[in-house]
Amino acid sequence: MLKFYAKQGALVSVPFHQPMVGQAPRYVGRTQNGNQLPAIKEPFAVEASSRMGMRLARICGRGDLLPADKATASHCRVPYVNVDHVNGEWVPAKQQRKTSNSNKD
């Protein structure tokens, strides 16, 4: 199972989805909220061996989606980066600085 988050500033259409007339297009990891398309908190999940899974793995590999877990990152051959959901977008998590207790003479 591959899991993806929407990347900030990117809209990736759900592969092989053909909306009916008058129906809104669907985007990976996003939902329609009026005129806005905020990223949802749940990852978009798809079977790795499916046609859609193979297509999304290629899209993630070129940098247009964020892998939601280490297994997906490994499958897509991209580095895994921790992300936080902030103001309707997925952004890299802030690294907390480790403070070292050093003895000063």
Explain the layout of strands and helices:
Elements lengths: L1 E5 L37 E3 L4 H11 L3 E3 L2 H7 L6 E4 L2 E4 L13
Antiparallel strand pairs: 1-2, 1-3, 4-5
Characterize this entry briefly:
With 105 residues, this protein is α+β, with helices and mostly antiparallel strands.
Descriptive report:
The chain has 105 residues and is α+β, with helices and mostly antiparallel strands. It has one domain (2-92). The protein contains two helices and five strands, in the order ββαβαββ. The protein has helices at 51-61, 70-76, and strands at 2-6, 44-46, 65-67, 83-86, 89-92. The strands form two sheets. The chain has a three-stranded antiparallel sheet. A two-stranded antiparallel ribbon has the order 4-5. Strand 4 and strand 5 (89-92) form a beta hairpin. Helix 1 crosses helix 2 (70-76). The longest helix has 11 residues, at 51-61. The chain starts with a strand and ends in a 13-residue tail after the last strand. The model is unreliable at 96-105 (pLDDT under 50).
- Write the H/E string, N to C: EEHEHEE
**Overall form:** flat
Taking the alpha carbons of the first and last residues, their distance comes to: 54 Å
- Our count of domains comes out at 1
| Percent helix | 10-25%
The total count of strands amounts to 5
Task: Give the helix tally.
Answer: 2
Q: Could you report the average pLDDT, rounded to the nearest whole number?
A: 85
Radius of gyration: 17 Å
Give the class from helix and strand content and strand pairing: alpha+beta
Strand fraction = 15-25%
Most strands sheet: 3 strands, antiparallel
Low-confidence stretches: 96-105
